[in-house]
Specification:
- The chain is an all-beta fold and 65 residues long.
- It has one domain.
- It is 0% helix and 72% strand.
- The protein has no helices and four strands.
- The chain has a four-stranded antiparallel β-sheet with strand order 1-2-3-4, with no helix packed on it.
- Strand 3 and strand 4 form a beta hairpin.
Length: 65
């Protein structure tokens, strides 16, 4: 049986489609393994740009084929 919990993060640069400006992108994630092939996870995504932040809270389900 795999470890029950997992943590991770995505970090990078987000580019504006129209203007070419860029912001800092981050997404910490915590997951819980329901079985060896399935996981439910919760994450927070944020993009910081010129003093403002765009953010979302996400709930996901992962599975292996």
């Amino acid at each position: 049986m795999p470890e029950e919990f997992s943590v991770g993060a995505d970090l990078g640069v987000a580019f504006e489609v129209d203007g070419g400006s860029a912001g800092f992108y981050y997404r910490p994630t915590i997951g819980y393994n329901l079985s060896e092939q399935t996981e439910i996870n919760l994450s927070y995504s944020g993009i910081s740009f010129e003093g403002a932040t765009w953010s979302t809270v996400n709930l996901g389900f992962l599975f292996s084929l």
